[in-house]
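Record passed on here:
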Amino acid sequence: MSIYVGNLSYSVTQDDLTKVFSEYGTVTRVQLPTDRETGRARGFGFVEMESEAAENAAINALDGAEWMGRVMKVNKARPREEKSTRSSSGSWGGRSNTSGYSSRRY
């Protein structure tokens, strides 16, 4: 399982997160997603720890804690949802046309 860490400072590094979470157990992986266009950190990350007990200890201690000027949001990461695909008839309602867009106006 993995831990979601939100509301992070944009200057946080993987080493920073490893150091903070290692106070609660062995950190096995840290991931900080970046924006595809700018390469800048997106303000959240994921931490994986060696045991569930270590994860729970970190979550209990760090959720709502202030770090680097931000109040962190820390909880169990939810499984990634698969992107839905639109049906061939279109999911926007109205009649479908060859461009795949609805003829309904909004």
Remarks:
- The longest strand covers residues 44-49.
